[in-house]
Each structure stands twice: as C-alpha cells, then as structure tokens.
Amino acid sequence: MLAKRIVVPLSVLAVGSAAAVVGVLHADAAETTACSVTYSVVSQWGSGFTGDVKIKNTGGANVDGWKLGFAFPSGQTLASGWNGTWTQSGTQVTVTDAGWNRTIAPGGNVTIGFNGGWTGSNAIPSAFTVNGVICGAVSPAASPTVSPTVSKVPAASPSASKTASASPSASKTASATPSASKTAAATTGPEDCTDFAALVRGKYWVNNNVWGKADGTGSQCVWENGLSGDSLSWGTRWTWAGDNTKVKSYASSVLGWHWGWKVPTGTGLPVQLSAGKAVTANWNFQVTQTTSNVMNVAYDLWLHDIANPDWQNNPTDEVMVWLYRSGGAGPVGTKQATVTIAGTTWDLYKGNIGWEVYSFVRTSSTSAATLNLTDFTDDLVARGWLAKTKYLSSVQAGTEIFTGSGRLDTTAYSVKIG
User: Fold this and answer.
1) pTM over 0.85, yes/no
2) Do 12-149 and 168-417 have matching folds?
3) Which residues contact 331 (CB under 8 A, 6 or more apart)?
4) What is the per-residue pLDDT for 187?
C-alpha cells in the first residue's frame, strides 16, 4: 500500500485570444506519504479538457493493486478515461487499476488520463487518496511557468508488436528518385521528451508514443514546426537499445482516434469504408541514422466496427503501409502475397495480436509518397479480409524503432478525407 508521502505539481490554464496556452503551475504538498501524485490540465478547448494524473511509488515495496480518489472542486464532469477504470459520483472521482498496470515497483509510476467537461473555472483538486490513504494537502505556488501545449495518451495503446526479419535483404536504402530526397527543416520547434506527450497543431497531434520501452532502454523526443496550409512539419529523435526484435516506440503524427480523441472535431474521421471516400496522404521525410538502426517509417491505420469509438474500444483491424525500413525490420505475421498499388510493388503480410494486422511493405524504400490510402483497404476488402462496414477511425504516420539512434524530419505531411 502507498502511504505517507506526496508531492503534487498542479496545472492551470492561461487562455489566449486565439488558442489555449497551457501554463504549468507547480505546487508542493506536505511531504507526508510514500507516494507522489502529479495532476495536470494538459489541454483545454471550449467546454472540454484533457487531464493527466501520475501516481508514483516512492516507498520501498511493490504496490500490488491501487485505487485513486479525488474530488473535482468546481463542478467538472468526467467524460472518459484511460489506463484505469474511471467512475464519478457527485464530485468524487475514483480510478482503479486496469489490471495490466496494477503493480507499481518502488520508484516506478503509473500514468493515467481522462477527458472531462468544465464551466466557469477549471480548478485543480486539492487532495488525493491512494488505497484509502490521504496523500497530502496542496500548497499553491506563487506564479506559473509557461510550457508548450502537451497532453498524454494511454500507455496501453500499442501498435502491433513486431518481430524483426532475419533477412539481410530486408534492409533498404532510400529511393534515388530526386523527389524522395528532402532536406530537414532549417529550424525545429521546442523538443518534448515526455513519454506519451502530444503536441497539438490544428487537426493533427504529434504523439511521443513509447509503448514498447519496457523491452529496452533509451529515450525519444518529438517536436512540431507548425502548419503551412494543411501540411504539418514535425520530427523526432531517438536512442534505443535492447531486444532488436521488439518495437520500442512509434513517434507519429495522428489524425483522429488513438484510444480517445485529442482533437474532437475537424478530422473528417471516422468514415465508413462503404462511403468510398479517398484518403489522400502526402508525406516527405528524411531519416538520419546516427548508428545502425532496426526501424521502419510507416502509416498506421486503425479501424473499428462502431461509428464513434472511445478510449475503451480497441480496434478490430490495423493496416500498416511501410514506406521505408532498415536493419532487417519486418512486420507481424506471415507474407501472403506481393501486390501492385499506386504503381509500386508491396509485400502483404497478415497477422493477429488480438486484432487483425495487415502490413503492406514497399519492396524498395522511399522517403516521399503521395497515396490514396483507400487503395490499400480496398485491396483487403476485395480479398474478403476486411468488411466495408468497418469505420476508418485514425490515420497515423511515424517511425517504429526497434534499436538504434537517429532522427526523422518530416518536411511536409498532410491527410485529406474525401
């Protein structure tokens, strides 16, 4: 059981005339328990907001099963949550572990998050309990410090667990096509190296997804350089070591769902496959390998059998489109066919990790592509593997890293639905 210590950094919002800017106000509570809790309002829009809560075990023994309690102080309402079972009764919010994260080792922590509603003000909770033990009282700090807009996504939101291929021929270099050779952006935005941080920009958000970090050691950072029209510029750098058959991270640009909705409107998603809408994606990027890497650069499409999935609704299908790979990286499942789509040949793999995973692996790597991603789902529909009643809920584009050090610079990325 967690007992007798807490430090609570808290967040407030400073909202500008054009957009919300998150000011993080740090405040220390009485240091009286063997745990710490960090509560942050990390994104706010209209009458909604996203909250982030981190529970840390600062004691000397494992916590085996946890239950967090706190009260909303100004009438906030819980809409949805992740990485735990969330309930609200009156002002009181209770979160119990999700099973897979029930154990917190000494020095370890669990991050959970939620979406909520607010009116008038969005005051921070003043006290927390873990397993019924009061964790401390808030002592407000004097002034906020401003940081970029950051929100968190559930740690239990992996893309497919991948196995590296042993075939040396799987290691590809970028195409020599002139349009495929792009230079990195001359300047980059501020880096965010927080696990599962999200940088919201327009209808997109850049996700510092490190879902497989437990299988290795290292770190990853992301940044975004802004929008030019509908085109996003962003990047990531990484250093990962460990099992070179397991993915450590998938830093990506997200449009739509990812165990919840960070941008609730304006994405054009979900869209049912039977609608026949084009999903036009343009991507220009540069990979810089500081050391040899086992990695890929790929689209990741998520599909559901319901029209409006939320955080608790796992996908039924995942479709990956690999543009670039290095070091023998290979997808989950087994090769089923070689197909021609958009004038290019792709090896098609099929596997299952609790949902169906289909991977189209380009037979020669490139660093620039304009594709109608519906061509790939149409191929699966024609094979009888994917029902046209399914809903495309998310289009993501990023890099899966198994091992190595390097960076990805996206100079231009856009997705248009319809």
Assistant:
1) no
2) no
3) 160, 162, 320, 322, 349, 351, 357, 359, 361
4) 53
